[in-house]
Amino acid sequence: MSNDNIIKVENFKQQFGKFVVLENINLEVKRGEIIGLLGPSGSGKTTLVKAIVGMSEPTEGTVSVLQTKMPSLSVVSRIGYMAQSDALYEDLNAYDNILFFSSLYGMKGKEAKKRADEVLELVLLREHGKKLVRNFSGGMKRRLSLAIALVHNPEILILDEPTVGIDPVLRVEFWKEFERVRAAGVTIIITTHVMDEAEHCDRLALIRDGGIIAIGTPEELKKNSGESTVEGAFLYYGKKVEVKG
Fold this sequence. Notes:
The protein is α/β, with parallel strands linked by helices. The protein has helices at about 45-55, 75, 95-105, 110-120, 140-150, 170-185, 195-200, 220-225, 230-245, and strands at about 5-15, 20-30, 35-40, 60-65, 70, 80, 155-160, 185-190, 205-210, 210-215. It has two domains: about 5-80 and about 155-245, Rossmann fold; about 85-155, no CATH class. A hairpin with a 2-residue loop joins strand 4 and strand 5. It is globular.
């Protein structure tokens, strides 16, 4: 694997019983880029990112992260993962949630408290740090989940539908933070079905019916399809797959 490609998925297949979720997936992710996995709900985006994180083992093929075959515990501490569903302790306040998860990464004492303050500030929750999470809105919970994913300064950030359930203004703030993190050298994989968000990614992998139907920069996908929007490009490549089928 090239030093520039810190994630490599080769001939990936994921099957549950007789149901094939994804098949023949090949993907390389470069250091310091934002790559979007764009597709409708149920297309297999979450299945793919879980394999990259190391939460599942492929039925066939390989997933390598930081030159290490996944799943591997040695790599987990270098990845920040924000799942679709918020995995938070609702009987704890926001600050204590962050301290708990930071302790899983070996962060303690002043270091953990300093970092907790920093990430709460980043996601605009500093004034709500002592509030019980059960009293948070859905958008506030998403912001806290992002803070937890960032707390250990990961080399790779994997975000599964991070902006679901948040308002448009906060979505803009999220993307400002993603850009800031990327500028610091972090590689970001983000799953989404929101077409306008896809324009912010360096590259897009369009996923439909268990496979990648196209991959490239937003501009390349639009140019090669003759469409003016990412949504139009997605529909174009989807029709080409239907014709082949």
